[in-house]
Design goal:
146 residues; 4-stranded antiparallel β-sheet; 27% strand
């Protein structure tokens, strides 16, 4: 199932990946989110990027809800950019085209995001995802032991 919507001055296609996630008790746990691929409609050959929605069909969500899911996916993608270990709110906003306020909201609401205990040289907080930290940390640790 797929759907097209507009955001950030372009059309986007959202399509289910076939993956779902559940958290809770029971076997199997109740499904609480469904994986989706977001892709700019004007770049059909572009690599899609992963996001999630809280309904089993993108058509069940309003355009505003889809926009929020896309924004969260854009922020996660920016945080996992291989050119950076950590990112500032300003850097993520510049990469995604979102306002700094919206980036901050996504960062504070995502369980996938971690904040560095050490700020950048200008005193700004730094963020990454748990996954990106683990992947980058493993690489750095391997260099130290060789």
């Amino acid at each position: 199932m797929s759907r097209r919507f507009r955001h950030l001055n372009r059309a986007w296609d959202v399509e289910l990946t076939g993956a779902s996630h559940g958290v809770g008790f029971g076997f199997p746990p109740k499904v609480t989110s469904w994986g989706v691929w977001f892709r700019p409609a004007d770049e059909p050959s572009a690599d899609p990027f992963y996001g999630s929605i809280w309904r089993p069909n993108p058509a069940e969500l309003s355009e505003d809800e889809l926009r929020k899911c896309l924004e969260a996916a854009l922020v996660i993608k920016a945080l996992e950019d291989p050119n950076w270990d950590w990112r500032t709110v300003e850097g993520v906003a510049e990469s995604t085209g979102l306002s700094e306020e919206r980036v901050q909201e996504v960062l504070e609401s995502s369980a996938a995001v971690i904040r560095s205990s050490v700020p950048d040289e200008r005193g700004r907080p730094l963020y990454t995802t748990r996954k990106h930290y683990k992947n980058r940390r493993s690489f750095l640790d391997s260099l130290r032991t060789t």
